[in-house]
Amino acid sequence: MSTEMTSGQRVVMALGHKEPDRVPFFLPASFYPAREMGISIREYFSRPENVVEGQMRFLSRYHHDIISALFYAAIEVEAWGGEIVFYDDGPPNAGAPFIRKPEDILRLEPPRIGDSPCLVKVLRAIEMLKARVGDEVPIVAIAVSPFSAPPMQMGFASYFDLMYERPELFERLMSLNENFCVEWANAQLEAGAATICYFDPVSSPTIVPREIYLKTGFQIARRTISRIKGPTGTHLASGRSLPILDDLAQTGTLIIGTSALEDLAEVKAACRGKLTILGNLNAIEMRRWTPEEAEAAVKDAIAKAGPGGGFILADNHGEIPWQVPEEVLESISQAVQKWGGYPLDWVEGHNGG
Amino acid sequence: MTGYERLSYQLEQALLALDRLVVKQILAESGQAGNIFEFTDRVIVPAMEMMGEGWEQGTIALSQYYMSSRILEETLSALLPSGTSPQRPHQKMAITILNDYHALGKRIVSSALQVNGFRLTDYGRREVDELAEAVKEDGIRVLLVSVLMLPSALLVKQLRRRLDEMACPTKIVVGGAPFRFDGQLWREVGADAMGKTASEAVEIVTELAVESG
Ligand code: B12
User: Fold this and answer.
1) pLDDT tens for residues A70-90?
2) Is the pTM for the entire model greater than 0.90?
3) Which of A120, A168, B14, B38 is deepest in the core (most CB within 10 A)?
4) Does B62 sit in the ligand 1 pocket, CB within 6 Å?
5) CA of B102 to the centre of ligand 1 (A)
């Protein structure tokens, strides 16, 4: 097939486990465009106009197929009243937890979206982006899962203690978080996002064992995703996925973000026809890739996961680090153009799918 | 299986099952061992190593690793009246989180070291300059640095430079997610060693910090 498709058509076809004109690819740039704009990360996120301009510049430079509407994960915590710490050369982080002791959960109330200036900023950015790209380029918005937000809300160790030892308070926090997550996801869809990335690394077997996942993260995902009024993909933020891929498919999600720590061929075998794979370039190593290494990594990922569609090439975490040189992103982009065209006749057994 | 191997296996299983009672029974047997470190080295260390390896390979989850280290720490401190816990002879050590706000890695590593008879100063979260000053002033010979964010990992380079400028011979041991995702990063930032798990931290420190004899 040689006629150019729009990014939107390309992604939809890949999600349908068919082969579009070429492998779609996604370089999630949350704060990265501030580099090219020559402004600080704090300033970049202070106005939705900056984010829109940054994302549009990024799109026209690298020609990827999806726009990320993520500001930073901790923006949700900001809405709950938590503190944010900005850095000059990396993503903003949640500061001290706002749930200081488990009993605080009893008095907690989720923020209202419309009353949270930080969330309204994100919605404005999505609306403006949508006005610029229409249906040509899908916009993906992020909602941190109810099960994965607590490390930011109360600290990771306290969260494990809660999960294992305080079931009632755990359930209460999950129910508050579920309502917030659904409302936040739906508001972003309404603003113009095409898909919600359900950010759920705590469900990964890297973080909790499958037995616990089935009683917690799995049930929560099923309930939450069924209330989100649009397509959803699940990202484990470079946590492992293989042991729970079948479970994930049953949560109603369409996409799975996979880790560089797992073999993409194995992941492909387990996902074929069920889940679209997003991944899995190692974004930490990427900082020191040569153009040849970038090309080799792209080629290898396409060979393993490209055949039959159901694959979007991306990094393995959902964010390009500040320290990755522009040349590396350019090499990745060029390598996709060079090796990603379907049919992948240079890949052995490419019709075998 | 020797008696110790069997005990070590039982300890690992009890920890994974969060069975505090069995953990307590096993640890109580340490009294029968020739010396406390023989028991630690042959029962506790191998059980923690198996868990660390399991986490590396994806068969054990972080929550199990964390809960195990917590139960071990709690059980040991209940068995041994405060102040009587055995201490290995070793050089002065400290642990810190450099620049970022994620405390869990430090907590697990610090707990694993203490359970194994090491004592260390906890510097909490620090920035490069104040950390270098403290290390120099306190005469710390082995500094364990935990990070979660890539920019924090890269700051180790500055820390190394500061310590060198101050002619401070401290060894830097690093760990945390960025070092697991890029196996070359620790050398690039001038660290002396890197551990992928808390039990690797114990191995490294045993080599670097234990005084001969
Ligand atoms: C779960 C998770 C989340 C959860 C919870 C995070 C949290 N703690 O607050 C959520 C969804 C909230 C999240 C959000 C974000 N995340 Co996140 N997340 C993860 C994940 C999957 C696990 C992180 C974790 O806490 N692990 C637990 C700790 C204890 O593990 P560890 O550091 O590896 O420590 C072990 C060993 O390394 C060792 N160790 C640790 N320290 C030391 C020290 C020494 C001396 C030694 C020897 C050993 C040692 O012992 C520990 C136990 O074995 C990782 C990816 C991964 N697979 O690891 C990404 C990861 C940490 N996230 C990352 C990022 C960037 C973010 C965000 C900034 C994204 C954004 N733009 O908003 C936010 C920040 C959130 C915040 N706190 O403000 C990056 C960080 C690296 C980078 N690119 O800069 C990672 C590594 C993903 C990646 N591959 O790039 N995340």
Assistant:
1) 999 999 999 999 999 999 999
2) yes
3) B14
4) yes
5) 8
